[in-house]
Amino acid sequence: MYEHNIMPPGTQARIICEWPDINVSDTVSVIAYDPLQGYLVRTNTELEEHWLPQQILANCSRKPWSFRFRKHGRRSVDATNYQDNIMTDITCPEFSEKIKDVSIYCGSKAIFKCRVKPCGRNLHVSWRKTEPDPCVMRNSGRFIINQNDEGETLLVINNARNSDSGTYLCTISNEIGSAECSASLVVVEASSPLPEPKIQVLSCSSVLLEWESDSYKQFLVEFCKLGTGEWLSPNNNLPLNSQSYTVEHLIPGETYSFRIIALPNKIISLPSLALTLPVADNLRWQQEQFKRRYIELEEIDRGRYAIVRKAQDRGTGNEVALKQVSRRKQSHKVTQAEYTLLAGIQHYNIIHAMALFDNAPVPGIDTIVLELVKGPLLFTYISQNDAYIEADVCEYSKQLMSALSWLHGRDLAHLDVKPENVMVDLGHSSPILKLVDFGDCVNTCKNVILPPACLEFASPELVLGQQVGKHTDYWAVGVFLYVLLSGVSPFLDDSLEETTANILKCDFCFPDDYFCNISSEAKSLIKKLLIVTPSQRISMNECIDSPWLKSVPRANIIPSSRLRTFQQRRHRLNPTTPTTPTGINYFST
Ligand code: ADP
Ligand code: MG
């Protein structure tokens, strides 16, 4: 006779825990019982016999209701009280929360969590990895399996590795039955993140998203309306094989963020900066105002982000420059900051801004209306004849230093001093240097770290990603002077690595071939600007007071050919930039 609770032969039993070669929740027929070996069972599908431990089997011949007992005076089922329920009801497990797909970087922690509705005590939980290499998960080393009395279970994978990627299955069972749920884990190398998408406003209800990725081929797009916290797909999660997508039917005036998900690993990009769509009326109003006010004329030049066009103000009849910046390349916030700064600056050698039009002339383009510089870049101007003299360089350097000194005095640093951003206005009795492009200009009171806009003029702190400031402009002025006096570049080398190394070592000299005619005062000043330690570089005011700029003007002749070659090389680096802006003949008068 079998003792109480031991299942007699012929009993139908259910597997309630993982066991090699047997599936959880399979039913088996009991053949025999042995106190040491457990049950000898036959699987109902394969008709094979196995010895299985007693604790992994549950009798499923018994009717479920035979287990029920009721406490007098209490409701048998109280959905809000789990403890009550597990005391009173034993039902087939059913998930109230299933495990969800997880995507993490190598080395971080993956957590799968699920919970079943109250279904009685003695729940058995098992975790298995089903793909790509099936195995049973055990509580050891990096893997922690946890379970509480409230039907919640966790699988935690610490210090995740690529090889942990796969599908995980959680099975929760009791005497009555079992429930399963599965989800995938994707562990990716931290080195292949997905950049956030760039956004271009196409209309008050649509935006163009563009992103770049060599590592992934298929993508999903999602957007989130500010305040909802909910990421939605604009196209029913249809995978995209391209790297751009137009999101339509957005609400004008609402603020959105967008993100990209790379398939198949579901790598999620950072969310884009929040973008407020224009309200239809405002958008049209700005465009109409713009068209009513300006007659667009020829393109003058292109920079890193902008196209600058000449235009005529219908109201005043004056010519202006329109700096048109695509929101894809420079955020509206940066353009707005550039405008605010230039509108507030009153310095003879700094370009002045008169107006800003958002999303005009077309959606996605912002236009800063600038004072027109009627002349070319300084380098182009100074090298127009066969030669120039050191005194010319002194004169323009003084003006550049004066502009920067004015900025520095107001805790601003330009941070992009280079030949393409220094122009000469020939519309006056004598040429006036004009500093343009304040897209990188920052307040030096803040701790600012920027990538170098142009390596050739970049200081060691810019290259190293350290805090930048006024001293960053001092270095750039040192390089600017060096080039202006010699036509060659102090640090430029055959490769980016070599150039970077030269900058970091401050490895430059004054070769006789280029500097034999140049005054020692000029070289001495350059040496005081090109110093690795930022605090040791001399300020713009000190430069203006230096012997080189105070002494009698020097007539040393500098041939223009080298500076012209320098300009042509820079133009090749940035082929959109004409060496002499198109359509304008500055030197004819
Ligand atoms: P980016 O920020 O894209 O580099 P910039 O402000 O430097 O744009 O302008 C691009 C080019 O347009 C400059 O290199 C210069 O040749 C020309 N430019 C800029 N501002 C003016 C202006 N106010 N008047 C005439 N030309 C200008
Ligand atoms: Mg520029």
TrEMBL record:
GO terms for biological process: anatomical structure morphogenesis; cell differentiation; intracellular signal transduction; positive regulation of apoptotic process. Keywords: ATP-binding, Immunoglobulin domain, Kinase, Nucleotide-binding, Repeat, Serine/threonine-protein kinase, Transferase. It comes from the Eukaryota. Residues 193-282 form the Fibronectin type-III domain. SUPFAM superfamilies: Fibronectin type III, Immunoglobulin, Protein kinase-like (PK-like). PANTHER family: SERINE/THREONINE-PROTEIN KINASE 17, TRIO RHO GUANINE NUCLEOTIDE EXCHANGE FACTOR. Belongs to the protein kinase superfamily. CAMK Ser/Thr protein kinase family. This is Spectrin repeat.
